[in-house]
Amino acid sequence: MSIAASFLAGAKSRLLPADIPFRFFVACTVLHVLMWLALLLAAGQATSFRGGLGPALAAVHLLTLGVLTTAAIGASAQLLPVATRRALVAVWPLKLTFWLVVPGLVGLVLAMAAVSTALLVAAALATTAGLLLFAAVTADNLRRAGSLPVVAAYGWAALAALVAVVGLGLALSLNYETGWLPDHSAAALAHMLLGGFGFMGLLVLGFSHVLVPMFALSAAPAKTTSRLGFVLAVLAVALGSAGALADSREVLAAAALLGLAAAALHIRLMQQALAGGMRKRLGLSFVLIRLAWALLALTLIVGLAALYGLAGPNGATLFGFLLIGGWLLTFLLGILQRIVPFLASMHMGRSAAGGPLMSEIAGSQPLKLHAACHVLALTLVAAGIAGDAVWLVRLGSAAGLAGALAYGWFMAGVARRVAVRDP
Ligand code: HEM
């Protein structure tokens, strides 16, 4: 039975109320627009950003917490019960997660922009509580899962990284008041690697093992190679975090090489799934997903070069931008524009009249406009950081903002159709 058939079988019985995943998708969409606006306003500081409170760090967390993490919570809340064939024990923890994480991250972003350490600590505590609650809900689902061992393994590793990134985030926030961290910037780098490659990265790699074969209508990736890819990816994240905390260039370089090997294996497995799939025309979303795979490899190569001073004066900033704005954001926006109409059609399929086609739920014009603006934004911002040209980062952020508004248009269309569907 193909992964698509096994995934879809019973999916309807484990469908959460539409407002649970969609509240996270709508929050992610609104914060996506605000992220590009914040980067536009903070371009002067962002072009050579190397940490510290201020508008650039606020833009970083609008992206990492506001866009990537909210979307990851919304998607995994619905996908995991379907993938693991284990319904969630209750829905209220996800509602509470929303009301802790979203106001918490807005407070965190405002505290970072306004350099208010008191608000920073309070907001960090609320966000931490919400993310740990999400981790508990997901751990409970994974604990009862049996059917997809590789996906579950990636899930557990991503959760472990989430607990570590949140713990370091809280420590970094408290450190502005207490000053007790031995090396603040080492902790900040470990925090970034655990957040980008650890929590988000491992979640993306894990879900790709279900979603890519499902949308391509192909068989599950080869088990042995999948397991090897998982081990290499987790080792790279662990070694990278240790190298950051130890401030060791050699260990960081070894981690980047391991990461490149894991990325190469993953991309090959995904290419094989696409090549073996019954559905060949996968549309614009997979143009973004393929671009994201290329950006993953580029991120690691730029990271390695930056370690040896071969990526220009803003090499470390470029590495960070390619990690969270390049690979992760591009993959997320590619996969969301498949998942969201798919989920909407499942909810609308419940109505008496049966479900509309996915293509009827969302027009393609806004997505074409988004894709063009997104690629332009990434190119201009990356060139601006590499060339230390603030005006290019500003221009790129304006393109990103236009793209985010187009994406919002697409998401608003789908959310409205789900909201007005007949029960
Ligand atoms: C409770 C949640 C979080 C809190 C309280 C938090 C807090 C912080 C703080 C205080 C810094 C500043 C470090 C400095 O002084 O330079 C920071 C940096 C950063 N955080 Fe977070 N963060 C959180 C979650 C995340 C997540 C989930 C991600 C990624 C997915 C992330 C990515 C980053 C990045 C990329 C930086 C910049 C690192 C650097 O300064 O070099 N954060 N965070």
Walk me through the structure.
By secondary structure, this protein is an all-alpha fold. It has a single domain (3-421), classed as Cytochrome C Oxidase, Chain A, CATH 1.20.210. The chain has 15 helices and no strands. It has helices spanning 3-8, 19-41, 43-46, 55-84, 92-114, 117-143, 149-178, 184-216, 223-245, 249-275, 283-307, 315-349, 358-361, 365-386, 390-419. Helix 2 runs parallel beside helix 5 (92-114), helix 4 (55-84) packs antiparallel against helix 5 (92-114) and helix 9 (223-245) runs antiparallel to helix 10. The longest helix is centred in the C-terminal third of the chain and has 35 residues, at 315-349. The chain is globular and about 50 Å long. 52% of the residues are buried. The model has no long low-confidence stretch (mean pLDDT 92). Protoporphyrin IX containing FE (HEM) binds at residues 51-52, 57, 60-61, 64-65, 68-69, 108, 124, 127-128, 131, 165-166, 169-170, 172-173, 188-189, 191-192, 195-196, 199-200, 320, 324.
- Work out the strand percent: under 5%
Report how far the terminal alpha carbons are from each other.
Answer: 32 Å
Average pLDDT, rounded to a whole number, is 92
What small molecules are bound in this structure? Answer: protoporphyrin IX containing FE
